[in-house]
Amino acid sequence: xxxVDLSQTGLKALDQExxxxxxxxxxxxxxxxxxxxxxxxGWLDWPKTYDQKEYAxxxxxxxxxxxxxDYLVVIGIGGSYxxxxxADEMIRGLHPVNGVNLIYAGNTISSTFTAQxxxxxxxxxxxxxxxxxxxxxxxxxxxFRVFEQELVTQVGEQKxxxxxxxxxxxxxxxxxxxxxxxxxxxxxIPDDIGGRFSVLTPVGIFPLMVAGINTDEIMQGAxxxxxxxxxxxxxxxxxxxxxxxxxxxxxxxxxxxxxxxxMQMQMVGEWWKQLFGESEGKDGxxxxxxxxIYSTDLHSLGQWVQEGSRGIMFETVIKIAQPNVDLKIPxxxxxxxxxxxxxxxxxxxxxxxxxxxxxxxxxxxxxMPNIILEFEKMDGFMFGYLVYWFERxxxxxxxxxxxxxxxxxxVEIYKHNMFKLLGxxxxx
Length: 428
Ligand code: PA5
What we know:
The protein is α/β, with parallel strands linked by helices. It has helices spanning 14-17, 20-32, 46-49, 52-68, 82-92, 111-121, 138-155, 157-163, 174-182, 202-211, 215-228, 237-250, 266-280, 302-307, 347-365, 380-401, 411-422, and strands at 2-5, 71-75, 101-105, 126-132, 164-168, 185-188, 255-260, 288-293, 313-320, 370-375. The chain has two domains: 2-34 and 220-401, 3-Layer(aba) Sandwich (Rossmann fold), CATH 3.40.50; 43-213, 3-Layer(aba) Sandwich (Rossmann fold), CATH 3.40.50.10490. Helix 15 links the parallel strand 9 (313-320) and strand 10.
């Protein structure tokens, strides 16, 4: 389902670049749960071990909820919303015409954004899915206050109860307590799955079910990836990618740009940035994960990519074989724009040709290594597959780097400063 093409990286065959024993040792460390952060490996078998009873209940609750609303406000930040949005956009596209619309709040402290969304929802039929593992995160916490109060004003306390769902820890945290006190339905984020690894848990699955997305396909895709990635060596495609990016880092490259040619993959890029950035950005080492959408970014950053500073960035290009929908380029009798030479082609053919030309220009003229990841399509199955595939890749990559890929101590420092400045009780 994902083929890794390293022919444009300048790397030799991987087994000539790295001692495969190292990869095997890390594979064993992951599966025997002996490495740093092993308490957070719940995602490793999740496509096989997820709670079927809770999954069935989510289906039932989501069906009932979806009949009552046109919009679901998904309130969460970081790992509590990025994967959901990535899935929704990748599978349904940017302008879905069927099902409940998902809109996102609590991922910003912007008053303008929040107030404008509140105004937009005034006369809409909506529900709320508030997602927070800790249950104490400021951004979703204050946004939830706003939208919960607004919904109660709109439909009354009793009806609001049927429209609000919380996804949080099974017993700890303010959100769990609040939801239980107010009688909101809750679903559980497992203790041993960190935020950025949680999209296949109720965090992502519940809102996606409400949207009408076939989540069974997502879980099947993840299971397929789990079954495909059993090899402990360099025949494992996720490890090929992990090793290649690690070798490029060791050559001095500082940034990896994930390049997509599909607009609906933009949030997959954002999800991937968190997965790799939060997992590896430790101890003063690691690649900066960035993301671009071509061809649009070729008209802004393209000049830099082609001729700017060399030796600091490489590209990882996602090449998608099948578009969800293809579109013919229309013919025009007058041909005033001179584009009739494209008239037998489709947009997808031109997009694929652009990719081939760009890779050639960047690699051969621009001396910019390109890893190419070949995906078949953009559907639920593929989303589940890529999530599990990148999760396995980041586990290997993080351990190759020598960091704990499953913690995020650095994100606490700004929070402490902010709480101190805001006068949070108990914070000095
Ligand atoms: O990956 C992570 O751990 C973070 O991005 C969290 O998901 C994010 O900070 C939100 O945390 P919480 O779900 O506890 O509100």
